[in-house]
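Re: that chain you flagged

S.,

Sorry for the slow reply, it's been a week of failed gels. I finally had a moment to sit down with the sequence you sent. For the record, here it is as I used it:
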Amino acid sequence: MTEDGGPVRINGSPVALPDDPRVSLLDLLREQAGLHGTKKGCDQGACGACTVLVDGQRVLSCLALAVQYAGREVVTIEGLSEGDTPHPLQRAFVEHEGFQCGYCTPGQICSALGMMAEVERGVPSYVTADLGAATAGLDGDELRERMSGNLCRCGAYNGIADAVAETFAGRTR
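Prediction finished late last night. Pasting the structure tokens below so you have them in one place:
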């Protein structure tokens, strides 16, 4: 956080922080920055629809105050593509039918990217068998446990898991 309360960087662009310190990061994204990809689901941190990346780590934006992120880099679903070219994980979600209604998809994708960074750093999960391993593997149980904070009302979990597994195959161990 910067001492002067400077702007937050969202998808590479500076966005002024709100005057009201009670504004959530989610509301800043949707109402001030006009980025509607990040969804407001439960507004209680239970569904994961609002997941974004802050300095590469996944954050539930409905539980975060915008002022906490002064000087930090926030990446939303809109910031993942390279121009008109979607991120490989976005393409995999389409190919594996990892969504039906699509409401949870932005949070699922951002969470998966943050999750993969955790795996690459060797952060264990509840089901990690060998806590001393240099990096945790990403088998089906690991993947599902690490993504368990993101809910899909349509039940597209198999497609989500397949898309994530395919995109990140070979990046661990």
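What I noticed first: The helical segments are 25-32, 88-95, 105-121, 140-146, 157-168.

Talk soon,
D.
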